[in-house]
Each structure stands twice: as structure tokens, then as C-alpha cells.
Amino acid sequence: MSGILVGPAVIRAGEPDWEANRAIVRAMRAEIARVRTPIGFGFRPERLTDLITDGVRTVLLCGEDGDVTPERTWQDLARWLPVIDAHPEVRWIIELGNEPDIAGVDIWRHRYDALQTLRRLPQALGRPQLQWAVSLPCNLAQTRDLLARDEHGCILDHVDAICAHVYGWYDLGDGGGGDWLRILDLAVDTGRPVFISEAGIDDRATPRPEKARRYLRWLETAPAGVAGVCFWGLGIWEDNPTYELTMEMAYVLGRWETTPEQRTPPTEERMLYGIRGLIDRRGELPRNPNGGPGTRVPLNQKRGVVIHYNGPEVPNHTDSAAAWRQVVNDAHYHIAKDWDEDPTNGRVLSGDGLMYHIAIGPAGEKWLCRDIESVLWHCGAWPHNATALSILVPLGGDQRATREQLIALAEVCDDWLHQGRGTAARDVWGHQELQPTSCPGTLMTDFVLPYRAGTIWEEIHKRTKEEATVADGRFFPETGHYVGHGFWEFWRDNGGLMIFGYPLTDEIEEPDPKAPGGRRVVQYFERAVFEYHPENDPPYRVLLRRLGAEALARNDPTNRNPF
Ligand SMILES: [Zn+2]
Fold it and tell me: Which of 127, 381, 488, 546 is most buried (CB neighbours < 10 A)?
């Protein structure tokens, strides 16, 4: 396992979104962050302190795109120095420049300015703990020029690290048609630690969690010498959402393990309530200060777990954003609802907020929705309500939890019970066992009963991987290919692995004289070839190639005459 630090490239932190950005930093367990420091980027020194509080221990401070003169660099750095001085435990790296070729500066001028800065500013600042890096252009020839050695010297003699960017269309490893990967090789060849200060893949059709998984797979094979990667981007401009780092992605990226010696110890934020990977979204849900029950019990009196579901089907329940919208709607509903069970007394008891402590998203997100000390009204079964941890899985009807959801649910229960809050056999309940109701639906057999019997992990591992749906597609690590959209639905609904086998290619285009435009999108599987026929009406848009007929046609000598 590589020792690459993972974190966000903090682009711009809009005032109302900063706490949401911090939640993402915590969920991805970021150990590194890259921050743009020019005043126009709106990032303030106290937010650096927030990032450090949230676990970041390596910071890349990146100033102007093109103007890397000592004067400008000093102007830009001065207001960050108090934070730098207050945190000697942090590795501070000043990154000179940002895509200077894109910024349109003359590369030789840029090189001269950077050399001046690297020779003069470190001495002037008098802070030997500061490290210096140069950011490489996006173009191979200009990168060679920037790193050249001549009578003026060489930038490499003055820097502690190199920064480079890596973008891709579909995967970071495809290089996105640019020089990124060759520049990265060149950076690694310098022997200096390389920080990828921006990385991202363009493909906007890819579901977010899958995109994050591609990032992690690329990290597994990244060149030795890559010391850290900052994924683009946090607080991004809204007109360029393709690269926005979201909570769903952060949750996947948070599973990245760096080497133990580089790992910073888990902070309280990372193990909220002793539960792994809890994403704190308490602040994002509506509350009603006048609602009930408005009471709390000390954590040490808490015991057991009650599992819930929504009842009615949840629209797009395998989509994380849709599931979260459902949770928000539930909170509004619980605030508006009359919780007084006696219709004859005329009293109205409205709720103080969502009546579940934790909700589990379809990609396995563990959303903390309420303080666990809060007593919640829901299942009517006192005293369980006052003491139990209440967990919602946003699904209903005959909908089934995803594999990721079951894993996350089991992890939350494991972590909770292991703190002395009960046993699996006696203290895990479905709502219906405490009060007549159908809640928690399919989760009784999929989760509650096997969990109590101690067989839940066995059950989860027995579930074949193709049952786990990730938005509208799935990546198969077995063969390294992705099945998406209509092909995914067809594959999933018509027999899956048993019938078609694993994908052998991604979607590709092949010449087909019968197709509009003469080309046809196809995908090869172990036992079938899927063809996309947009000219047909559904459900005949995805058709199987008649493999037997084609093979016959190739082998049958009587078939050589076209007729
Ligand atoms: Zn319930």
C-alpha cells in the first residue's frame, strides 16, 4: 500500500458553504489540503485553522497563477504567516505558480521570477520550517523549459517539492488527452517529493461514488514519488460542477488508507460517538425549537438499536442525493406531524426535528442527523425510545437495501454495541417488534434477524456483487470495466452475471452499416455482445448480437455469396 496523502483542493470557500465543506474534509479524512491564497479567492486565514482542526497536516499554499515575483509572493503570504507560526506541527509548502502556460505568462519570465523568489524570499522570511515547491505547467515543452538548467541556475536546486496536475476524461490514468502523465513522470524523475495539487476526471456521466473509486484505484498504481494528491475541488464555481468534490465522493475517498506512520491519529470528529465514518449532517436538517420531546439522556444510559425504514417507496432510493432529500423531507414531516396518539384530547404535539439519530445512504454513507443523546419520538414503545439509537434506512415498499447500506448498518451497530451498549442477540430491534407496524419492511429479514443471529457478515458476503446497485451503473473490478445506463439495466434485469458474464470492454463504437451514422455503440461481455439501437422504441433499444448466427455466417461456405 502506498503512502500517498489524500485531500481536497480548496478552490473557493463561499461563506454559507464553509461548514459543509468542512464536513467533506472530515468525511474524506483529509491529511493534505491545497489552498489558493490570493485575496480574490476569498479564503481566510482562520479557515486554515479549521482545516487543521479537521485533521489536515500538510498544506500547499498556492498564490498567483503567473506572478511569482518575490514582492507579489511576499504580499500574498504575509497574511498567512500568523497561522503558519501557530502550527509548527503542520508541514507548510509554498507552491509557486498555477498552470502558468494556461495563465498565458512567458515561461522564461516565469522561471526567472520563480528563481528570484526562491533565492531571496526564504531568507527574508527567516522561517526554515517553510518548504518551497514549484508548480509545473500543463504542457510538456514548457515544463522542460521551466526546469531547465543554464547560466541563471535551475529551479530544482531551490525547491523541496514539485507540484503537478493530473486530469483525465474517464480515468486519471487516461491522461485526458493532455501531457499530464508525461509531466508527472518528469516530476517524479527529479527525485523530489511530488504533490499532485489538482486531480480530477471530467466524465460527467459517471456516478460520483464511482468517480471517487476510480480516483482510489489510480492511486494504487500511481508512480512512487507521489507524496500527496489534492482532488479538485471544494467550494467550486457552480458553473463547473463536473469536478466538484461531494460528500458522496468524500465518503469513498475517506476509506483510503495511507501507511500507519503517516496516518495522523483519529480525532474526535473522525470517531463521533465512537462510530466509524459518521458524517455529521446535523446542521443541514430543519429543527423546531418549540417541538417535543425536547429532552436528552446521558450517553451512558443509552442502550440498544431500533431499525426503521420509510414505509412508502423512496424515489431513486439507490441514489445518494435522492436518499438525502428523503431524509430532509422526513424531518419536515416529523416537525409538522401531530405525535399525540390520542385523537380525542385535541392536543397537538409537533416534533423538534427528525426522529431518527442516524440515516444510512445507499452508497454506505452514515449520516448523523441528531445528537444521539436526544430522546426521539418514533416507535411509541417506551422506554426503548428514550434509550435506543434510532437508525433510518431510506427505502420502503419492497425496496431492498444496497450491499453498501447493509455493510454500513452492520458497522454502525457493531461500533455502537461494542461500546457496552448492548448485545447483538438481545438489543437490536426492528420497529415492528416493539409496536404493531410494518417498519422496517425488508430490513427485518435482510438485516435485523441475521444481525441478531450473528450471521449478518456471512449474509452480506453471500450477496453477489451484482446485487449492489450504484446509481445507474456498476464498475466490475474483476475485469476492470464499467457497465452503465441502458446496458446496465438490461444486464441487471435479464440475468446478470449468470447469463451474460462480466464486461470485457467498456462501451465502444463499431462500424455498422445498418446503424444511423454507420456506427453502433456496443459492449462485449463474456457470453454476449450488447448493441445500442437508439432508432428503436423501448424496450428494444438494447439488443443482443446474434453471436451464433454470426459465427455460422462466418463458417458456412455457402454464405460467402451475398444475396
Ligand atoms: Zn419505524
Answer: 488
